[in-house]
Amino acid sequence: DAGITQSPRHKVTETGTPVTLRCHQTENHRYMYWYRQDPGHGLRLIHYSYGVKDTDKGEVSDGYSVSRSKTEDFLLTLESATSSQTSVYFCAITDRPGVTQYFGPGTRLLVL
Amino acid sequence: TQLLEQSPQFLSIQEGENLTVYCNSSSVFSSLQWYRQEPGEGPVLLVTVVTGGEVKKLKRLTFQFGDARKDSSLHITAAQPGDTGLYLCAGINDYKLSFGAGTTVTVRA
Lengths: 112, 109
Hints:
Structural class of chain A: mainly beta
Distance between the termini of chain B: 36 Å
Oligomer: heterodimer
Number of helices of chain A: 0
Order of helices and strands of chain B: EEEEEEEEEEE
Mean pLDDT of chain B: 94
Strand content of chain A: over 45%
Helix content of chain B: under 10%
Helix content of chain A: under 10%
């Protein structure tokens, strides 16, 4: 299994509070992704990174920001959480885009 | 609007039966992947199909990529309870994946 962890694994927060999710990898893969998974929608790409300090938006990026200051860590921030951001968030990594993506175990976020 | 439509959404069958899951799109993809996801875990790649008309077999699983590279199917022969899970297709273009909503497969013993 690819060395990829996510923290926290579960979080409950209140509307309007900032939240940061962390993805950590030990594989030295260049590309990292954040997805959200909701019933009936599959996984949708939020943001991705193609190198340190190089990031770009996905299809559902509104309300989210990311940062990648070193290869192993990719942070996803909800600046002011809303109930619509209640979801399961997955991080994925790959060294070759368009080939295998390895997914983390997910973070379950509940915004009250 | 989902770029990739999967059908059926849910599938419940008895052990030993066969099943087919479909993944359809109006878009052409450079390649397509199938993932399997178990509760509480991230998706795990099963296969990547690249060539239109390609058929790949992995033990009891057969994957087919449509000639026009817009659709795909996953067929499981003699399903077992261990095949239970969420099956996701993902089309690849410009190095990014677009996922279908998934098919939840339950195989009863």
